[in-house]
Design a protein that fits this description.
By secondary structure, this protein is mostly helical. It has one domain: de novo design (two linked rop proteins). It has helices spanning 7-23, 34-52, 58-84, 90-119. Helix 1 packs antiparallel against helix 2 (34-52) and helix 2 packs antiparallel against helix 3 (58-84). It is elongated.
Length: 120
């Protein structure tokens, strides 16, 4: 099995591309500030998942899931800042927050299943 087969990875990958596109609409002076932070954190979540995927040490895999969760919390923060600065509208904010919350739930389920596997 490949990490690319995981639904949560596919979704995080797509969101990273969408977040990148979103930041291209920010004011020029934000391209290397808030825009860069959003691009990096949105890309880090699927990257962390890919890094730990399939590791023979399950605890390494669960740690990568935990890091991916942290990146999701970070991007949600950055998106709220973008909304407060009026770079994105409420609908766009709610869309991204909802999508990232769904990914977070999916990651939590994956982590629980790995922890159950470790207990066997």
């Amino acid at each position: 099995m490949l990490v690319e087969n995981l639904e949560v990875y596919k979704k995080l990958f797509r969101l990273a591309l969408e977040a990148h596109e979103l930041t291209m609409t920010f004011p020029k002076y934000e391209m290397y500030e808030l825009g860069s932070q959003i691009r990096r954190s949105s890309n880090s979540s699927p990257a962390n998942l890919a890094e730990g995927f399939g590791n023979k040490h399950t605890n390494v895999y669960t740690e990568s899931i935990s890091r991916a969760q942290g990146e999701i919390r970070e991007i949600k923060h950055h998106l709220k800042i973008a909304y407060a600065k009026k770079y994105i509208n409420k609908e766009k904010l709610e869309y991204f927050i909802g999508e990232y919350e769904e990914c977070s739930k999916m990651l939590y389920g994956l982590e629980r299943s790995l922890e159950a596997k470790m207990k066997k």
